[in-house]
Amino acid sequence: MPEKKHILVVEDEEHLAVGIKFNLEAEGYRVTAVGDGGSALKVIERDPKVIDLVILDLMLPGMSGYQVCETLREQGNNIPVLILSARTLTEDRTRGFEVGADQYLNKPFDLDELLSRVKTMLTLYDRRAGLRVPQPPASTYSFANAFINFETYEVVVGGRPAKLTELEMKLLRYFIEHEGRVIRREELLTEVWDMPATVTTRAVDQFIRRLRVIFEPDPSNPRYFLTIRDVGYRFVSEGVK
């Protein structure tokens, strides 16, 4: 029998945490619930491989959900994070993505939607971890010294495996599918982040910086992920000299 997926619920409203835990366990998951960000980080730090998914509230005592997510990404932890928050402003969603969250769901939420998102995110995480998961024929792409498999989330750069989040993979795929074309930031916001083009956010720039760190020989002097000043960005697989 396969080992149960372990989900960490970070929620300071006890009644809500208990309800989420009950329903996730009814779906066959193993669940740990904590009420603050510091405790969440301690659970993950004890053994980063134990937790498969984090469901994270934003308004937590002491340390906000934003800080928890940002800390995980700064530590190089690629664990999928689903923000679950009563904050409904576009600015809140924007900041959530900027600190590295994979998905954002508003409270009050539909239970079926929450369970569906959890299942999808765990499936994607299995694929990027290299586990055996039923899947359609692989969709792969290579450029320079990089190999990407968009079905299994396998990424190898210079012979070494690299970890990308779900959003980073989505952004990378969009660039590859539109190779050579100058893409405006507004287009990336609507097509990759599903956000209005009028939103002011640094998320696009930050994610492109991450792609450069992973794929560029010299991230400060990019050859593949180019900035077209005052216009947008452009991907060229052959690179520029």
Q: How is the secondary structure organized here?
A:
Elements: E1 6-10, H1 14-26, E2 30-34, H2 37-46, E3 53-56, H3 65-74, E4 81-85, H4 90-98, E5 103-106, H5 111-128, E6 140-143, E7 146-149, E8 154-157, E9 160-161, H6 166-177, E10 183-184, H7 185-191, H8 203-215, E11 225-228, E12 232-235
Parallel strand pairs: 1-2, 1-3, 3-4, 4-5
Antiparallel strand pairs: 6-7, 7-8, 8-9, 10-12, 11-12
Helix pairs in contact: 2-3, 4-8
Give a verbal description of the structure.
The chain is of the alpha/beta class and 241 residues long. It has eight helices and twelve strands. It has two domains: 123 residues, Response regulator (Rossmann fold), CATH 3.40.50.2300; 96 residues, Winged helix-like DNA-binding domain superfamily/Winged helix DNA-binding domain (Arc Repressor Mutant, subunit A). Strand 4, helix 4 and strand 5 form a beta-alpha-beta unit. About 4% of the residues have low confidence.
Going by helix content, strand content and strand pairing, the class is alpha/beta
Strand order across the biggest sheet? 2-1-3-4-5
- Output the CATH class name of the largest domain: Alpha Beta
Mean pLDDT comes to 85
- Provide the number of structural domains: 2
Radius of gyration computed on alpha carbons = 18 Å
- CATH H-level superfamily of the largest domain: Response regulator
Share of residues in strands: 15-25%
Main attributes of the structure:
241 residues, alpha/beta, Rossmann fold, Arc Repressor Mutant, subunit A, 2 domains, 5-stranded parallel beta sheet, 4-stranded antiparallel beta sheet, 20% strand
